[in-house]
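Quick question, first post here. What does this chain look like in 3D?
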Amino acid sequence: MGEKVTIKDIAAKAGVGIGTVSRVLNNSPNVKESTRSEVIRIARELNYVPNGAARMLVKRSHSQATVALLLPVVENQFFFELIKHIHGRLKAEQFNIMIFNTDHGHDSVVHHIVEQRLTAVLTLGDPPLTQAEQEVLEIHKIPFLYVDYHDPESSYITYDSVKGSTLAADYLISRNCKKIMMIGLTDRSQQQVDRFEGFRRYIESIGDIQVSELCINSEEECYDITLSLLNDKSLDGLFYFSDTLAYGGIQARLESGRDVSIVGYDDIFPSKFMKLSTVRQSSEILGTRAAEMVVELVRQREEGEESRVLQTVLEPELVDRNS
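> Answer (accepted):
Ran it through. Tokens below.
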């Protein structure tokens, strides 16, 4: 039946009203989960393609294409640098971008993406899209790609956080650290969990090194917390989840006069001026490759190819600035 299937057909088979089907297909609220699942199942069974999605599958100029960029937090310096390179590569391919802040969830954002018939979605970091949001995007033939996040069932590009944390651990080990504190945020992201678990496992495999974890509420607290930690004269190594956390640690170390080794993560722009040793995950490489992958996902849809999951894991590197 393909494109000839209408929401009336879906409504009739599901035993619900046309308005309910419309709300499900546009990711609108106030629909029971059981009803939503049944409508999605029937839409797939009937091979329903919304009119806007059908037009997207007709080959066209990329200058008409707009990619939605879903940004979970606006104060993340790494994401700012990442967006710069995503935008540069998409602009070269004649794609436009539209940035959405999702710190209150994705629901209304996905609804807007569907209403505006945007071409594709790039989600930076986590939290990920819900199953319902993914299904709505798939029904509307809108591909999505996770950036700096991994999901075995979806397309993504990320850096190997376990490998990166091993590099950070090796750095502190090379400086003869015997008592190490990992410092992160209470709002544990997938990236932090991966980095800390990888770091801890590697340190424990070496033996004879004590490692602990401390999570704080915000980057603003990091200076005071580190200053307090440095009262422990046996503490000789600090691993920070991100460079922005590590900056507070560097200032605390300077004021305390303690000889403690510090390593961060990301290698954002200010880190070279702060002389911070850190694990580099290049925003240029990640952003450029992410843009190229989402263009490929759009090409698959436009040319009617079977959608393939694209997954890329990049290798980080250690930048030693003797911190």
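Confidence is low (pLDDT under 50) at residues 55-62.
The CA atoms of residues 49 and 139 lie 7 Å apart.
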